[in-house]
Design brief:
A: 20 helices, B: alpha/beta, glycerol-3-phosphate O-acyltransferase activity (chain B), glycerone-phosphate O-acyltransferase activity (chain B), membrane (chain B), GPAT/DHAPAT_LPLAT (chain B)
């Protein structure tokens, strides 16, 4: 057990380690104290906050009740963790949470300035605090509130609480917040603490015709959390964060029954304490919730071993305006007509609230190993991934970055501590570019993660490296692999840094058959470059992609796109136009509308084209039956 | 309407000053496509033969015919051997040398718009390029390769008709200079089509070389643009439709000649004398053309047209999502419509960039005045016509600072073999025929050759006058000023002549005609009426008489066809070829008897078009007996 834990720690540095979590726990009381004081102050000031009676019980969770306290209100992640350029002009990452925290990244500045034509003198800082006066007064449904109070459900209409739950992390949402612009926000927030609380809330919402928008981790990138402008009813954000307990673990069947509000990293840590894991690790797992995964058909990094969310769930309980929907047993597979789970998976909060989920669990793997392979070019890399998929021997995770991302990854290398190390780096570079003849402007890197028992991992590793060698791939060490995965988690923080210096960007994804992967990647990247040029973007944008998942019949491709917006009067609009064009290009090249981000409101216009008129009609008729009053009125998807 | 066009440079100037040999042996380093997958001509063949597409079709053909796949593969390989080019720089250098010599003897100058070359240089680097030259002479593709060599651009591979292959030695020379050969017709031959399309697509996808082909399919014997073919256009666009290429640049190239080498050959061919079979000995015999003066030649490289922007909003590329891309798919109705629209647009771009010499104006006037004109009035009318043509956007190369009469007499001198000038009176006539006793039929024939030769020059400017002329005609026949009537008349004429001229689908032709004539002050277009202005009469009269020969020809055609039909009761249906001979004979008889004055009605091209139009309009019907 001990060795296992230490192995995991060394292998997975990016997550807050147990000691840090403990430190954190100590501070929590004070923080909560502050929260409470704030609350009392607002009361005494005499605002009409008499209705605000947020729960004050503290539960074990990384992201606890008042998210605002430890998380940015206008950017990604924890408030204490951010990139900045220090006085010397060197980039550093603050805080203590990540492996990169507290380190200097000497080459980031050059990469940043060179790639975007940005300049450290030209800053575009964000508004430091929420301008609460810009928040419209809440449109409250008094009878609903009365009944809610009687039912004893925690609620608030504090403007800060409402603003915090009015958005996901789309570029336009964050950009507006940074500029201090606040649009329609929920009129109040409710915190159910269990399934029956949700039943009560939904029942009351139906009774009083209130619009409910479920809120899990708030990491949506599809405008799914945006309040519809046309909504005239009182909008209530239903925050599931208090429903975060593991209710039972069944070691005989290897399942766990969990409340849907639990955040990914908490779920994983708590299961780890019992020697188990779910293995579901979406890039957002530090902040996203189980219910959110179900509602958006999430995909995890290690799906090759554990499966995507639809493979992981055994049982789902959801509260709808019609009542509770669930299956009667925990059978592993059924032939009982169309799987009702598939109405729930991907419903994006339009049908009800997922309250409890029974999920498969696995013993924590004995051994983990990172790895990486350098390919002379992207084509060879894709061919290798395809072969790995053909032989069905994909490791827990295998990802292929294109050349631009490889260079980007390089820019994030922390300062080398010794002369010996830098000498070693130079030697490696010499070997690959000079000796092996790889063109540094074409080569690309695949990162690997193996998991399992030690012997098998080593065997597996050899098999994959042998295949890679056939496609000209050279093993490039564990360290590069690990850094590749770290990049995934910090890249979201980097966007905030970019936004401090006139650079905006975002990511989007698709899935596509194998034979079209290369064409799609090339065409979409080029389309982005061309659209930017046509819309007056002064510098060529960063337009890069990586293949992040392999399947039998295709792959998932992830694009990053960012540009310097100096000189543009409406950068967000330009951004949106380019992203729109890129999505059209994806669809024209045989890519799907989304692999795991979901549709939300951002990609709704293509739904009919994607699933056919009849398909859309089927979904609409389900909505019609389940929620005729449109109580779950976030207007996603349909 | 009036477009700014680039200036020309004469490339022969440099050739006359420096050594041809050194030029042929100079260092040739073309700008290359950035996505180029380097490969040799021989490798190209194996890529094509191994391609999923061809393998699929081979299996299909083999299972349909019962032949073994090896047998079918072998067949495919033979087809490819027959087709494939083997571009060699040494051959190009040989041509660079000999053609330099030839061009200097034939032409006074060969003018190229260098800005167009620069644009092409840019385009070649960005995306695979397809060159679409107009086709008036055998010279065209030789000249294209010559120019691209001169300007350090990648040498094109050229789709050529199989006819050249039969020329001993020359066929192989052309193959080594980048020509690949396709059969004229291979309608149902799946395997042939698969080999051919895969071959072209592979070269395009790999960025091997610019692909060059003629939209019109064949040389236009009349100097009018021919109705474009869409087969090859579809092949070069498909890699874009299927996402295999981000974009393809189509570059229309307009090649115009002050005097066409094949001038009288064409006229004879149109009069029913079959074209001489391409042969090496024939080529050697044709040496005598080298001793004549063919004036100047112009090559205008148009703006590259991106297939992506052409297809924007017209082609739904996701229609290809549900089928593996190697399985051949017949183009959908939408795609068909798009292809034909695109082809017409490209041909119109070719037309617009075609350089016109003063002679085409003179030819137009001389054809309208079969009895000839005085030099002074010819000069005066030419000047008038020049202004009209310019107002309609003609790309006229008129010498600066020269009196009109000077320009006219220069032009007459170059084309003296078509004219007789005596006592200040100019007339189209036979000059180079020995004045021995001729039968009346022979006399008619010789005169017809002259008229058709001359018509081929007038035809070069037809695209400028075409739309206003159709409007003028429609107004004449409508006998009313109501816009609807005129519009209906216009549309009727458009329908009748759509095999004859390049007319785009939609209403744009009518609008363009109205706009041009309004701008010229000839017409006033009101909400419901179209009114001729006082000064507009002469213009309208001129315009409608431009199309007169065609109208007459179309009127005669059914007449002659009736005769043809009656002359052979046993066969009501005649193959088109035979039909045209019959038509020709009948028209000839009528003409010799003096009942018809319009020599142009003798043109087999016109009759073929007329017959096609009547069939299309269901005015006549094919009956199988």
């Amino acid at each position: 057990m001990n060795t296992r834990a230490s192995l995991r720690r060394s292998a997975k540095p990016r997550r807050p380690d147990p000691t840090r979590a403990a430190r954190h726990r100590c501070r929590r009381g004070e923080v909560n104290g502050v929260t409470f004081r704030t609350f009392i102050v607002t009361l005494s000031v005499g605002h009409e906050h008499l209705l605000s009676y947020r729960p004050c019980n503290i539960k074990t969770g990384a992201v606890y009740l008042s998210r605002q306290e430890i998380m940015k209100w206008n950017g990604w992640g924890y408030s204490d963790s951010r990139f900045l350029f220090n006085k010397k002009g060197q980039a550093e990452f603050t805080g203590k949470r990540y492996r990169l925290s507290g380190l200097i990244l000497p080459s980031l500045k050059d990469w940043f300035e060179g790639t975007f034509g940005a300049n450290l003198q030209h800053k575009s800082p964000a508004t430091p605090t929420v301008n609460l006066s810009a928040v419209a007064p809440p449109n409250l449904n008094e009878p609903f509130i009365e009944d809610l109070k009687a039912a004893g459900v925690a609620a608030s209409h504090d403007p800060e609480d409402r603003v915090f739950r009015a958005h996901g992390h789309c570029l336009h949402e964050i950009f507006a917040l940074r500029e201090g612009r606040i649009g329609r926000v929920p009129d109040m927030v409710v915190w159910p603490s269990c399934h029956s609380d949700v039943e009560k809330i939904v029942e009351l919402a139906c009774k009083h015709n209130v619009c409910l928008i479920p809120y899990g981790g708030g990491t949506s990138v599809s405008s799914a959390l945006e309040c519809p402008h046309e909504e005239t009813r009182s909008i209530v954000s239903l925050d599931t964060s208090q429903m975060n307990r593991i209710l039972w673990i069944d070691e005989k069947n290897l399942t766990a029954h969990v409340e849907a509000g639990i955040i990914g990293q908490d779920l994983e840590r708590q299961l780890n304490e019992h020697g188990y894991c779910t293995g579901h690790e979406p890039d957002s797992m530090e902040f996203s919730s189980l219910g959110g995964w179900v509602a958006t058909r999430a995909s995890g990094m290690k799906k090759n071993i554990y499966g995507n969310i639809e493979d992981l769930v055994v049982h789902i309980k959801m509260v709808t305006p019609r009542g509770v929907i669930e299956k009667s047993c925990l059978g592993p597979r059924m032939s009982t007509g169309p799987d009702i789970h598939h109405f729930i998976l991907g419903s994006e909060g339009t049908l009800g609230v997922v309250t409890e989920v029974t999920m498969k669990i696995r013993p924590i793997p004995e051994y983990q190993k990172y790895g990486s392979v350098v390919f002379p070019n992207f084509q060879q890399g894709v061919a290798c991934l395809r072969e790995v998929a053909r032989q069905r021997c994909a490791p827990a995770s295998i990802r292929l970055m294109d050349n631009e991302q490889f260079q980007f990854g390089h820019a994030l290398k922390p300062q080398v501590s010794s002369i010996f190390m830098s000498f070693l780096d130079g030697l490696k570079k010499f070997y690959i570019t000079k000796f092996k003849g790889f063109d540094p402007h074409h080569l690309c890197v695949a990162t690997l993660l193996f998991e399992g028992d030690r012997g098998k991992v080593l065997q597996h590793e050899k098999q994959v490296y042998d295949i890679a060698a056939k496609f000209g791939g050279l093993a490039a060490g564990e360290d590069n692999g690990q850094r590749g995965y770290m990049l995934t988690f910090v890249i979201a923080y980097l966007r905030d840094l970019g936004m401090d210096y006139y650079v905006i960007g975002e990511s989007f994804e698709t899935s596509v058959p194998w034979d079209r992967v290369l064409d799609l990647c090339r065409n979409v990247k080029e389309r982005i470059v061309r659209e930017c040029k046509e819309r007056g973007v002064q510098f060529p944008p960063l337009s890069t992609c990586r293949v992040t998942q392999t399947y039998d019949a295709g792959a998932c491709v992830y694009f990053y796109f960012a540009f310097n917006y100096r000189g543009l009067s409406d950068p967000v609009h330009v951004y949106e136009q380019v992203e729109h064009a890129a999505r059209e290009e994806i669809l024209a090249n045989g890519g799907s509308l989304s692999h795991h981000h979901g549709v939300g409101k951002l990609r709704k216009e293509w739904m009919k084209e994607s699933v056919s008129g009849v398909g859309l009609g089927m979904l609409k008729s389900v909505k019609e039956y389940v929620d005729p009053q449109n109580i779950f009125g976030n207007r996603n998807l349909l | 309407m009036l477009k700014k066009r680039d200036d020309f440079e004469d490339i022969l100037e440099e050739r006359r000053r420096s050594s041809d040999l050194r030029y042929a042996l100079r260092c040739y380093t073309p700008t290359l496509y950035r996505g180029l997958v380097p490969c040799k001509a021989s490798m190209l063949k194996s890529i094509v033969l191994q391609s999923d597409h061809l393998q699929y079709v081979i299996k299909q053909v083999s299972s349909e015919s019962g032949e073994s796949t090896e047998g079918v593969s072998e067949e495919a390989s033979l087809i490819l051997d027959e087709m494939a080019h083997c571009l060699q720089l040494s051959t190009i250098r040989f041509f660079a040398f000999t053609l330099s010599k030839a061009f200097k003897r034939l032409f006074r100058s060969v003018c190229v718009n260098e800005e167009g070359i620069q644009r092409l240089q840019q385009a070649v680097q960005e995306h695979p390029v397809v060159l679409l030259p107009s086709h008036r002479s055998y010279m065209d593709f030789l000249m294209m390769s010559y120019l691209l060599y001169t300007y350090d651009l990648p040498l094109p591979v050229i789709a050529a008709g199989m006819d050249f292959m039969s020329m001993k030695f020359v066929g192989e020379m052309l193959r080594m200079s980048g020509a690949f050969f396709i059969r004229r017709s291979f309608g149902g031959d799946k395997l042939y089509w698969a080999v051919f399309s895969e071959y072209v697509k592979t070269m395009l996808r790999n960025g091997y070389a610019p692909i060059e082909f003629f939209l019109e399919g064949t040389r236009s014997r009349t100097c009018k643009s021919l109705t474009p073919k869409t087969g090859l256009l579809n092949i070069v666009m498909e890699p874009f439709f299927k996402g295999e290429l981000f974009d393809v640049n189509l570059v229309p190239v307009s090649i115009s000649y002050e005097r066409i080498l094949e001038e009288s050959l064409y006229a004879r061919e149109l009069l029913g004398i079959p074209k001489p079979k391409e042969s090496t000995s024939g080529l050697l015999k044709a040496r005598r053309v080298l001793s004549e003066d063919y004036g100047s030649m112009y090559v205008y490289f148009g703006h590259p047209v991106s297939v992506r922007s052409l297809a924007e909003g017209k082609i739904n590329r996701s229609q290809y999502n549900l089928l593996p891309r190697y399985i051949p798919q017949k183009p959908s109705a939408d795609t068909h419509e798009f292809l034909s629209d695109a082809a017409f647009r490209l041909v119109r771009i070719q037309e617009e960039n075609m350089v016109l010499k003063p002679w085409v104006l003179i030819a137009t006037l001389l054809l309208q005045n079969p009895d000839g004109l005085d030099l002074s009035s010819l000069a005066e009318q030419t000047d008038w016509l020049r202004h009209l043509a310019l107002a309609f956007g003609a790309f006229l190369d008129w010498p600066d600072h020269e009196a009109c009469s000077e320009v006219v007499s220069c032009s007459l001198a170059l084309h003296r073999h078509l004219l007789s000038v005596s006592a200040g009176h100019v007339q189209l006539s036979v000059t180079d025929v020995p004045q021995v006793e001729t039968t009346p039929e022979e006399a008619v024939f010789h005169q017809a050759v002259v008229v058709l030769s001359c018509a081929s020059y007038r035809n070069q400017i037809l695209h400028v006058f075409l739309r206003p002329a159709l409007l003028a005609m429609a107004m004449q026949s409508a006998n009313s000023n109501r816009k609807d009537d005129v519009y209906n008349g216009f549309n009727f004429l458009r329908k009748v002549f759509s095999n004859e001229f390049i007319l785009c689908p939609g209403d744009s032709d009518f609008e363009e005609a109205c706009y041009l004539l309004m701008k010229r002050g000839v017409l006033q277009v009101l909400e419901h009426e179209i009114v001729m202005s006082a000064s507009g009469h002469s213009t309208l009269a001129f315009l409608s008489s431009v199309l007169d020969p065609f109208l007459q020809g179309y009127q005669v055609t059914p007449h002659t066809q009736c005769v043809a039909v009656f002359s052979d009761h046993k066969r009501l249906i005649l193959l088109r070829f035979e039909m045209s001979i019959f038509c020709f004979l009948c028209a000839f008889v009528i003409m010799a008897s003096g009942r018809l004055k319009c020599y142009e009605a003798l043109s087999s091209d016109l009759q073929k078009n007329a017959l096609a139009a009547f069939l299309r309009l269901k005015a006549v019907r094919k009956v199988k007996v």
